Backbone:
């Protein structure tokens, strides 16, 4: 059981995701469909609930608690306390997902408290990065019972001592097992679970899912039996997953058959007593849903190079600087090259144009800025995955390539694209809400590799340029971001121009 | 937290009970009001819920699952699946109480399954004395999650291995800590709790409540921190008692302040952050409720010696034989003395008349039998506590004394009485449903001691004659019982005459 995952992070349709993880021994995931909810609201969550039906694993849903995450960008939907209450009444919905707005909780913001109240006695996941002392107490007093953002051992110890059920995260972008494994002893380990939070399709295929997490936990010194409990019983009990997490009378026969608890070499998976997968292959093919309601989400009309024109002004302009290997950015400044009175991307100084175009309302509000750190010498990339509102974002050397890449993303109903020399070099369609693909996992991985190669071939010197691009619009992580509403100074939570 | 108790076993009003246990550090009990429910049904449970209000401890209720327990006696009420569902919706009701009818569960009796279904996702307590192997599996598969009837270590190990949350019972009549303490290790102890099941007022005053259970657990080798968890956190988590069981942010400040975890010398008790008791005294007096609805429950008209006449027949008659120290009885036979063509009690052979008079419907149906083992030389005793239907039961040497004792019980609105030489020697009024007294605990204890002394002065040679008497009508424990409907052969579950 994955205690906390954003399935969207795999870019796989939830049913295709299931087809990949079930042969690796996964019996259930507790998903926070935060991304699709920011695009489609309740409709997106309904899609997950519908996709969950008839799967050879359980796809439990936590209701996203922070949709929209801020008012500094235009999201596709809003989930208020009424929607929270309504969703919590649905089959397969097990709680309120990570309450990311911890300042709102601590400051007792009425809308935040209303959602917590709407959760009633259901579990509420926490999200308390670095929160300590009295601020942590205040946050917990409001009812959150877990945290998966813990990275340090002292922080983890403090959180366990305050009653938090600790979700030890080992995902694609954040890996905390090495730091937190020493905390798992005979008293604490029943109060700890394993979670991925996010997991790329590439990592799923290469490393695995919870099988990988358990192997990692054992490698970090956690006894196999405790590691298994952290990925099964502990999670099922905390989230009150009826009939899950144990092999005993009265429990459902969700079984992973392994050769060794240390190797987690899953040979067969059973779901509710039926063979679900054997020797790495799913027992029965999983059809994905047609679901037209979640597909046409790129509500953008004409895109042309004229919209990217920026009249030059005197002096330096703000530049978002990428910090390699982290999702924080630095607020710097610079002076892009000027041509015919307009600012242009300047690959010599590694200053690229950045654009965010709103894609939910049809009004296509947009804003422009600059970014440093991609190292692109040519071409442009565009993406409909742009946390948290997932507007259309693009960065590039030439306006023409930016437009070409964005047009490709719109054409495919959402996705990732790289264009150079006026033509599309690679693209991955993400037709489901502009976040997930309907393609099989190996095809998604192949296209992701093509995209990475196209970027690299054009001079990009960072490893996951599309992942970095997807965070440049996220106005809750310091220091400087660009949303459809403008350039955001994160610390002051203000649009600065 | 007492994980399972029949408060009625203390013969104290629930609010008086609270006044006794709170100074001993009890913050909550999970009560199964099985006894009052057999007399008053939903009305009796409402009384408990009402009594719970404003107490300096929590009185959580499990809905009695077996009312009536059998059709071999006349109970005062019936709680069917509809009532179960209705009660489970009420504040303070946390689950379905011990499912005593395990043959009904295993045999899939429709009325039993209907109640289980009505419980939905609420916790259901088990009651599985000696149940092992496939029978145990079948029982658990129906949804029971605990057991407090385990007496042997192998039985306990098997139950833990099958996922049961084990309630280790240390009560007044059954004491299982010595046998089960060795089972509590680093893996199992989070899946174990302490419970009293029953606790007499005398034991409460002399030994204590959960403070005593924790002392006993520690004396049996369980580390104090685990013993405390077994009486707090483990129980709160299993029964999903929100905000209970831990000292941490987000939890209610229910605290017992002790000098030593081993001694459990409770000096102060706090409930929801307020001082509830200090130095053995409750902080604010607890008023008991008037509650006329639960008082007039002895619906019996005239009682006279003529009703005890038994026309003699030839040959031996069945005699219920008490087994000292156990609640099983033996089916024996004997020949009582005959006077003027009627059977009479025969103290020489220790054969006493036994009578059960139905007290719920007003029809006062009754039956007569014989019992061996009390050793009474004179007098008679009567009680309105007679498991499970709590009809009026009496045993004695002379018909006049039996009538005198029974009249006293009816006069006091229910209770216990001993009469000798035509007058009442001692009595304890149990006005609440004929089960619990409105007197303070020390007064109840004093009267219980007077009753025991009266019995002993009149030749009784068993230690708790009223407790033994209260079980002589219980038609679910072998071998021979007397109910208002007649003499019951327990193994065949038939009325034999």
Residues:
């Amino acid at each position: 059981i994955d205690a906390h995952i954003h399935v969207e992070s795999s870019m796989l349709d939830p049913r295709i995701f299931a087809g990949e993880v079930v042969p690796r021994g996964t019996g259930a995931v507790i998903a926070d469909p935060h991304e699709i909810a920011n695009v489609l609201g309740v409709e997106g969550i309904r899609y997950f609930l519908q996709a969950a039906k008839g799967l050879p694993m359980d796809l439990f849903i936590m209701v996203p608690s922070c949709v929209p995450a801020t008012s500094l960008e235009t999201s596709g939907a809003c989930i208020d306390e009424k929607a929270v209450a309504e969703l919590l009444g649905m089959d397969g919905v097990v709680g309120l997902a990570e309450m990311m707005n911890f300042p709102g909780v601590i400051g007792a913001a009425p809308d935040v408290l209303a959602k917590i109240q709407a959760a009633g006695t259901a579990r509420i996941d926490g999200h308390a990065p670095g929160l300590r002392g009295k601020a942590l107490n205040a946050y917990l007093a409001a009812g959150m019972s877990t945290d998966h953002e813990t990275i340090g051992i002292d922080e983890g110890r403090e959180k366990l001592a305050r009653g938090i059920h600790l979700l030890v995260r080992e995902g694609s972008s954040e890996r905390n097992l090495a730091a937190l494994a020493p905390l798992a002893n005979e008293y604490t380990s029943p109060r700890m679970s394993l979670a991925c939070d996010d997991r790329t399709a590439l990592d799923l295929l290469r490393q695995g899912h919870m099988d990988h997490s358990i192997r990692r936990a054992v490698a970090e010194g956690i006894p196999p039996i405790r590691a298994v409990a952290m990925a099964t019983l502990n999670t099922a009990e905390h989230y009150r997953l009826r009939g899950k997490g144990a092999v005993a009378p009265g429990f459902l026969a969700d079984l992973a058959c392994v050769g060794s608890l240390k190797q987690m070499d899953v040979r067969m998976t059973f779901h509710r007593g039926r063979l679900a997968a054997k020797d790495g292959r799913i027992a029965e093919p999983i059809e994905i849903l047609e679901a037209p309601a979640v597909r046409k989400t790129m509500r953008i009309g004409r895109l042309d190079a004229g919209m990217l024109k920026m009249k030059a002004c005197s002096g330096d302009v703000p530049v978002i600087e990428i910090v390699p290997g982290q999702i924080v950015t630095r607020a710097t400044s610079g002076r892009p090259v000027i041509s015919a009175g307009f600012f242009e991307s300047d690959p010599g100084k590694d200053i690229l144009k950045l654009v965010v175009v709103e894609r939910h309302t049809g009004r296509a509000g947009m804003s422009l800025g600059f970014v440093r750190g991609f190292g692109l010498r040519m071409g442009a990339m565009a993406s409909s995955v742009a946390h948290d509102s997932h507007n259309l974002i693009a960065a590039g050397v030439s306006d023409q390539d930016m437009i070409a890449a964005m047009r490709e993303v719109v054409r495919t109903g959402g996705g990732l694209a790289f264009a150079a020399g006026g033509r599309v070099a690679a693209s991955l369609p993400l037709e489901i809400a502009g976040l997930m693909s309907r393609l099989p996992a190996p095809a998604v991985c192949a296209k992701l590799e093509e995209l990475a190669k196209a970027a690299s071939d054009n001079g990009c010197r960072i490893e996951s340029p599309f992942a970095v691009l997807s965070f440049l619009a996220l106005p809750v992580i310091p220091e400087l971001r660009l949303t459809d509403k403008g350039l955001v100074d994160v610390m002051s939570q203000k649009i600065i121009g």
Remarks:
- Chain A has a mean pLDDT of 96.
- Residues 441-457 of chain A form the longest helix (17 residues).
- Chain A touches chain B through 25 residues (CB under 8 Å).
